[in-house]
Amino acid sequence: MKKLYVLLASLVMLIALAVAGCGSTTDSKPVAGGTSTAPEIKTIQDRGVLKVGVKVDVPKFGFKDPKTGQIDGFEIDLTRALAKKILGDENKFEAQGVTAKTRGPLLDNGEVDLVIATFTITEERKQSYNFSDPYFTDGVALMVKKDSGITDLKGLADKTIGVAQSATSKKAIQEAADKQGIKVKFLEFGTYPEIKTALDSGRINCFSVDGAILYGYLDDTTVILNDRFTPQEYGVASKKANAGLAKVVNDTINDMKKSGELDKLMQKWGLK
Amino acid sequence: MPGPFAGYKWLALLNDWSVFAEGFIQTILLSALGLTLALGLGIFFGLLGTSHVRLFKLINRIYVEFIQNTPLVIQIFFLYHGLPHLGIMLPVFAVGVLGVGVYHGAYIAEVIRAGVESVPKGQLEAAYSQGFSYWGAMIHIVLPQAKRISYPPLTNQAVNLIKNTSVLAMVAGGELMYHADSWSSGNLYYGPSYVISGLLYLSLCFPLASYAKRMEHKLEVSS
Prior knowledge:
The complex is a heterodimer. Chain A is an alpha/beta fold. Chain A is 39% helix and 22% strand. Chain A is built from ten helices and 14 strands. Chain B has one domain (7-222): MetI-like (MetI-like fold), CATH 1.10.3720.10. Chain B is built from nine helices and no strands. Chain B starts with 6 loop residues before the first helix and ends with a helix. At the A-B interface, helix 1, helix 4, strand 10 and helix 7 of A face helix 4, helix 8 and helix 9 of B.
């Protein structure tokens, strides 16, 4: 019995240690000045490569071509511009595929410097991470089966809508449904292909996520409705402690907006 | 400073405790029903395996080998996404009970078979000589002895079954893991969410596991 208590006690201590450990690493002092000499920027410059988390399954934004193995898209071009700004060379970046679920932890543990992965800005998320000003705005859209005969949100009354975990679509659709006075149910899945599978098997009646992402899953049997809900603003996220890096990113994005470079990129990828 | 374990994230969790309670209850229900099914299937197929009839043995092998050598995730996916294409739409709770029940039934069948086979042959022969029928000998002589041997590994199966209900999170199963995922993915407070869920699973599994340990000790002493 005694052994048992020792075991339990050590377990509790282990957890406490883990909590304390993680607390202290994020307790680093705010960056003085916030110019390009911020320590985290220096770290990136010393390393010589910018580590970025991007989507690999969202056509036009971040998509890994299965034939060439190359990741490309609007958000990759944005990464290039940021690498050029910080390191002086647009090819000095390392892109890592993230999902809605992994992008937060990857920022926290320093595995990536930035996340540029259709990351919607919310007040709640701003408490945990730095977000740049939005570089793209998209609305939540609905995809249904052609033979379901559903043409708008009203048609989805008492039906089940599949959404992605870590996505803001659920809230957006819930608000719109409340306004129209209809009830809808939600099921959450880990990845987009799983939601599509659930739509195919009839587990859900509708697949809902940001419009741009949804177009990647359109096929002969499905149709995307015209409605768009609650504009979703995408921002570049960085670790909360890295205020200097966040400032450089934000300045770069605002410069690109002013110079028209951002618009050009959107046109290049057919997003405008 | 807002790390993954920042204080306000714990407060937010405390505020939404009902989300976790709902998942916890669902996990307990799933485990209880799944375990009942697993025990039923395990005893039935396990006894088939000890039979001398070739066909029964074959049925036992097909069930055990097929289930043990495919991942639980695929079995659950088949029940959830596959069956609807054949016109069978099981509610997700039934998918869960059936999924973990059938999966652990195969392991329990092996436990039962090993337990029965560990009872010396002479016991059955002695029972026959006293005029017992096969089933009479099984129920009164063999199974009570097999039970003692099988208990500790059975409890381990129960622990594994509880943990494996978390696979249901992948198909929106509404149990503890699903709610932990769902709650923490919206606000990204994943730190407290997974620590608390882990502790909740621990609170279910640890008593069972230590119960199994105690049983093992008892067996060593008495045998």
